[in-house]
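F.,

This is the one I mentioned.
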């Protein structure tokens, strides 16, 4: 290509290279999925089709970049990809990694939508899109804490949401009444409310809802107690 006098503008670009020898964690999260899930009538509190769609998208991302990945973990409208500390993916450029994984995830979501929601076509005015960020973690204990944080978040949110929606759907409460009933309650109290008021044993809820989804480098999708398996999951990394 011929140089032009305009080319100097390229010098204004900065390259945000991620520090070497640190784990790169990429998290994608659906934009306004509270609204998105309402528009497409997701089942509340957990639409299994939507979770399986998220898993299918993440699995394709993991498989495409499996030499760079340790594992991925997802819940609700978010997925985390944990990369090896020595990965040279996209020259470790933060913007490249975040945007390319985010757009690869989004294009998969659109492409696979129909397989999981065969009777619900996507509407141009309500398309799914995801934000994406890279976070650097300097050592494995902190990476394990990161994964534990998302795992515990899954449990806390799911217990709350399950109780919230059961009180509405089974006990006929309004959303305000349900929120009031759960306000300030401990985990054990929420489980008791579910059992006594709604006849639901939280332990019997589907594993994917309670534990989130973990994808191994081989592309296996597991719903496991992540905290118990941390050593095994990160062995050799
Ligand atoms: P933001 O754009 O800031 O991320 P958001 O509306 O996406 O806003 P989140 O905190 O990311 O907010 O929460 C995602 C919301 O999407 C959940 O609170 C829930 O209402 C909905 N949602 C996501 N996945 C599912 C699912 N599988 N079944 C039912 N609802 C879901
Ligand atoms: P990178 O991933 O680094 O961006 P790239 O292969 O996408 O690599 P670009 O510099 O972005 O490289 O160039 C895009 C290339 O895509 C062009 O050089 C051209 O070969 C091809 N291309 C893009 N749009 C068209 C088009 N409309 N018709 C034909 N070829 C196209
Ligand atoms: Mg968000
Ligand atoms: Mg979101
Ligand atoms: Mg979210
Ligand atoms: Mg290009």
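My design for it:
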């Amino acid at each position: 290509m011929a140089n032009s006098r305009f080319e100097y503008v390229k010098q204004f670009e900065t390259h945000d290279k991620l520090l070497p020898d640190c784990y790169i964690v990429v998290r994608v999260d659906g934009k306004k999925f509270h609204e998105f899930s309402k528009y497409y009538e997701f089942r509340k509190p957990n639409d299994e089709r939507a979770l399986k769609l998220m898993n299918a998208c993440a699995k394709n991302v993991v498989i495409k970049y499996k030499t760079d990945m340790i594992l991925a973990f997802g819940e609700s409208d978010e997925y985390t990809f944990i990369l090896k500390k020595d990965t040279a993916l996209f020259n470790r450029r933060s913007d490249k990694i975040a945007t390319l994984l985010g757009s690869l995830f989004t294009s998969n979501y659109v492409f696979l939508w129909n397989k999981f929601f065969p009777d619900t076509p996507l509407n141009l005015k309500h398309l799914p899109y995801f934000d994406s960020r890279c976070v650097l973690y300097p050592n494995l204990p902190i990476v394990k804490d990161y994964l534990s944080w998302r795992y515990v978040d899954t449990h806390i949110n799911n217990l709350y949401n399950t109780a919230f929606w059961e009180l509405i759907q089974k006990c006929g409460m309004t959303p305000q009444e349900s929120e009031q009933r759960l306000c300030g309650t401990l985990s054990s109290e929420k489980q008791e409310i579910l059992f006594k008021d709604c006849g639901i044993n939280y332990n019997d809820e589907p594993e994917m809802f309670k534990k989130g989804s973990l994808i191994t480098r081989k592309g296996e999708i597991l719903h496991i107690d992540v905290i118990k398996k941390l050593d095994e999951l990160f062995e050799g990394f």
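Helices lie at 33-39, 48-64, 94-116, 140-169, 175-182, 187-198, 207-211, 230-233.

Talk soon.
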